[in-house]
Design brief:
4 helices, 18% helix
């Protein structure tokens, strides 16, 4: 009888722990849960399977401050093409990424650089420490990083927005959620000492084919004092018929990165 009672008690403990309420937050009479936010962000992101856009890109750092134009073509789940032109229509470079390999044409040096899509190589190309999936999320309205798909360490209200905080051995991520749309407006990456390393901002959202996409995206590397800002002047989704073509002169020098 005691053994039966022990089993029953253990079963009830498991059942009650599984039914424990998720953290909630309330702002202006609206209560949310992390699961609610994650579901809405995922549905919005999944509505964008292909994308074609153009606009201006600005880079500011202690060494330089430059602006130019860009074109972006994105096909989920595995292809991104970015072309960048400087002032007076001077082509700066183009990069075609897949999940495994990349082609990077440096127009100024007439070099075609190839290699594997590793975090180190992506950092050398974009000067930003992001993975391939994080780049996809960046251009399609933001998303939760891998592993940040469960209950957060905290869910609070700050600055009239919901803030979800996740942590692991590499640091913390803070997701700022717009209370009206429940979409991500800002992501802050903090190191193990709590210092802000990278900040992503998503602004001026616009409805396109049932999805809500930001027209302005800003990435700030605080410790390196580097800012990259993208402003879309044109943006369209469901453009899977647009080919991803990288034009490279036949006399371009070939370079391979490990």
């Amino acid at each position: 009888m005691k053994r039966v009672d022990s089993i029953l008690v253990a079963f009830l403990v498991i059942l009650l722990s599984g039914c424990a309420s998720a953290p909630t937050a309330n702002l202006a009479g609206r209560a949310i849960t992390p699961e609610m936010v994650q579901r809405i962000v995922k549905v919005n992101r999944d509505r964008v399977q292909s994308l074609n856009g153009s606009g201006t890109i600005t880079v500011e750092s202690p060494e330089l401050a430059q602006s130019g134009s860009f074109e972006l073509i994105l096909h989920k789940p595995d292809s991104i093409l970015v072309k960048i032109e400087g002032p007076f229509g001077i082509q700066v470079g183009s990069v075609l990424l897949t999940r495994t390999d990349f082609l990077f044409y440096n127009s100024l040096q007439n070099q075609l650089i190839t290699g594997s899509v590793s975090p180190a190589n992506l950092n050398r190309i974009f000067r930003i420490n992001l993975t391939f999936d994080e780049l996809l999320n960046l251009f399609t309205g933001g998303g939760f990083l891998a592993g940040d798909d469960n209950d957060p360490d905290s869910l609070v209200v700050e600055g009239n927005q919901f803030v979800l905080t996740y942590g692991n051995g590499a640091g913390k991520r803070r997701y700022w959620i717009d209370p009206g749309t429940l979409l991500i407006s800002k992501v802050q990456h903090l190191d193990t000492k709590g210092k802000l390393v990278l900040e992503e901002r998503f602004e001026k959202f616009r409805e396109l084919g049932g999805a809500s996409l930001p027209r302005h995206i800003r990435l700030t590397q605080h410790q390196a004092r580097r800012l990259v800002a993208v402003a879309f002047s044109s943006l369209a989704i469901d453009t899977s018929g647009v080919p991803l073509v990288l034009d490279v002169p036949t006399n371009a020098e070939r370079v391979r990165w490990r």
